[in-house]
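Standup notes, protein team

Yesterday: finished cleaning the Leptospira bandrabouensis set.
Today: Alpha-glucosidase structure.
Blockers: none.

Input for Alpha-glucosidase:
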Amino acid sequence: MAFRLISLSLSLFFLECASRIISNFPHTEESFSLTPKVQWIQSTNEFTLRNQSLSKDFIKLSLEEPFLKSSTKETISKYRMASFQFKESLQKTCDKQSIDEIKKEPGKVTIKGKLTGKDCSTDYQLIFQTKSDTEVEFKITLSDLSLNRIQFHYGSSPDEKIFGLGEQFTYDELKGKTPFLFTEEQGIGRGDQPITTGANIMAGAGGNAYTTYAPIPHYITSENRSVFFENSGYANFDFSDTKKTKVEFWDFQSEKSLTGTIWIGNSSKSLIEAYTKKTGRFPKLPDWAYGTWLGVQGGTEKVSAIVKQAKDAGNPVTALWIQDWCGRRVTNFGDQLKWRWYADDTLYPDFKKFVKSMNDQNVQVLGYINSFLADTDPKKLGDDFTNPLLTEAKSKGYLVKNSQGEDYLIQTVGFPAYLIDLTNPAAVRWTKDLIKKNMIGMGLSGWMADFGEWLPYDAKLYSGIDAKIYHNRYPVDWARINREAIKEAGMEGKIVFFTRAGYSYSNAYSTLFWEGDQMVSFGTNDGLASSIIGLTSSGISGYALNHSDIGGYTTISNPLRNYHRSKELLLRWAEASAFTPVFRTHEGNKPLKNWQVYTYTKPDGTKSLGDEDTVNLFAKIARIHFALKPYIQSLVEEASITGIPVVRHNYLVEPEDKNLLNFKYQFFLGNDLLVAPVVESGEIVQEVYLPRGRWLHLWTGTTYDGYRKIQVPAPIGKPPAFLRVGGKSEGLIRSSINSIRNKD
C-alpha cells in the first residue's frame, strides 16, 4: 500500500476538542477500592485505575478533554494485489463528552454519559471490570449504531516506550509513531528506494513503514503495562502525543462494542505470559525441525541432487521444502505455482514414493498450500491450465462472493484466482479433507500455509459477517483450519505448518510463523535488517516462533536497477537465521537470478548462481544452528509453556539498559546469547553494544565487561555472537559452541 488517502480525515479525526468534559454528577475527589489492591481514584482533572501495592496504573483518563469520541464515515476501498487504499468522507462526529453517572461496585466501575456534536448524539457506557489484581477488562458501548468509528484516549508519559503491535518491520519502538493495523501485503520496498517508487508507479504496491502481514492490537510499555484490544476492524494507533495514547477502531459497531484487556506486572515477560495465557501459545516443534530446511524446487532429480550435495558438505539437512509439489507455473513475476492442491505428476512422478525415499534418508518433506484456487489466465494466449478443484468449489458455492453475489475473481500476481470462503462450514470441511488426503495422506510432514491477507474489503461471506471486520480474522481462521486438519488426522505434534498472515489469536492455531516476502537486499525497510525487527517486534505480541526466508524472496529485474540476491547477502542472512528457531532457505521468485546455497546444472546446460565455496560456507553456518539445538529446543519448550518468544527484543531481556535500545538490529536468543548480525554490505568488523555482565565472544573466546561498545571481526561464517558468562544456560551453550569449534 503505497499511499493512503486518509491523512486529512485522520487529522480531523484526531483534532483536539478544546472544551472540558461536562460533569453532570456530584464530582468529589475520592477513591474507591474495587479489590483490596485495586483502587478507582477520582480527582479534579482525571480518573485513575491503580494497583496500590505495585504503585502502577492500569489507565488514566483526563477530564480536561473528551477521552471518547465517535463519528460516522463513508469509506471507499481500492484493492490491488492485497494492497489497500482508503478514502474516507466524514458524515457526522460526536466530539463533545459529558459524564452523567459513575457507578462503583466491588470489582467494577461503570461510567455513563453522552457524546454529542453537530447532528450527532449518542449515549455511551464504559465499564472497567477487574479480573485480578493485575488484570482489568474494559468495554465501551454506544447507543447509536450508525456511528462506525470510535476513538479512545488515555494517559501516557513522555518517557514511556511502546513495543509490539504484532509484526512490525521498520520500527522496533513506537513512541512518537502513528501505526495502523490491517493485514495486507507488506509492500515491495516499504520506503527503500528506488524500488518503492517503482512499485508504486507500476502497481501501487510499494508499502510503507507500517504495512505488515501480521498486525496485532497488543503492545507492552516500559512502565510494565500491556494493552490488548479484542476488535478486528481497521485500527489507528497514535503515539505522537507524549502525554497520551489515541486509539481508533473502524466498524466497531458490527462487533457491538470496543473491548479489551489491560495488564500490569513487574516485568515485560510476565505481561507476555499473561497475554498469551489469554490468546494462545505455540506447540513444541517436532525433533526433526531443528536441522536445515532446504527450500528447493524443480522436480525429483534436481531436489534429490541438491539434498545429496548439501549432506556431502556436512550440512545437517533434516527437511526438504518443495513448494512446487503441486506444479510449476511461470509468469512475468517469476517461478510460481499451480494453485491446485494435489501432487504434480510431471515434476514428481509417484510423489508418495518420493516422499518415503526422502524419509528413509531422515529428511522430512514439506509442501505448500494457500486458500486460493487458481483459474486459467485470459491474458496468456493458449493457456491450457485447468483446475478441477476450482470447478468443484464453484459448483458447491464454496467461494467468496462480490457485491453482486458472484464468485469474487481476484487478480493475483501472475494469474486470476478465487478465495475459499472460510465462514462456510461445508467449504471448511472440504478444505480440511483436501489437506488430510492430498498432503498428509501423501506423507508430507508440513507445509507453508501461505496468504490469508487478501480478502477484499467489500466481499460478501456465507455467514453474513461484514468483511470489514472479518478481513483481519481471515488469516486466523486459515491457520485454525490447517491445525484442525492435522488434529483430525491424528498427527498433532508431528507436522509443522508455517503462516505469514495473522492477527489476534493466530498464536493459538499456527505452529510456526515466517516473515513473508522481504526483498533480496540489505534494505533497511524491506531487506535483511527489516527481518530482524520483524522477529523482535512479533515476539512481544505472541508470535513466539518465527523465522524468515534465508536470502529474502522478492527479486526484481528492472532497467534502472536489478534486485538480485548476492552471495554476500545470502550468507549474511544465513548467519542471522542461525540464531532463530527454524533455519530454512528459499530460492526466491526468480531462482536463476539469485545466488543459491547449492550448485546445479540443468540437462540443457543452464546453471544456477552458486559455487562450491557457498555450499561449504552455508553448511558451516547451518552447523552453528544445529549445534544450538539443545538450547533452542529448551527455549521452544519454554515458549509453549509461557509464550515468551525464542528470539527476544532487547527490552525483554535488559529493560533497564536505555543504551541497548539504540542497537535495534541486535537481539537475544533466549536470555543468554546476544547476537549482532551483520546487516550492511561490505562490513567485516562489527560494532556491538554489550549490556550488564560479562560476555564471551563465541569465536575468539575473548571475554568483555558489559556497559560498553566494542568492535569485533565479523568474517562470513563467524557471526558476532556473545555468551552471557554466569547465565543460566552458559554450560549448555558452551558445550554447543565447543562442538562447532572442534568440527570447523
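Follow-up from PR in the comments: Residues 430 and 673 are 45 Å apart (CA to CA).
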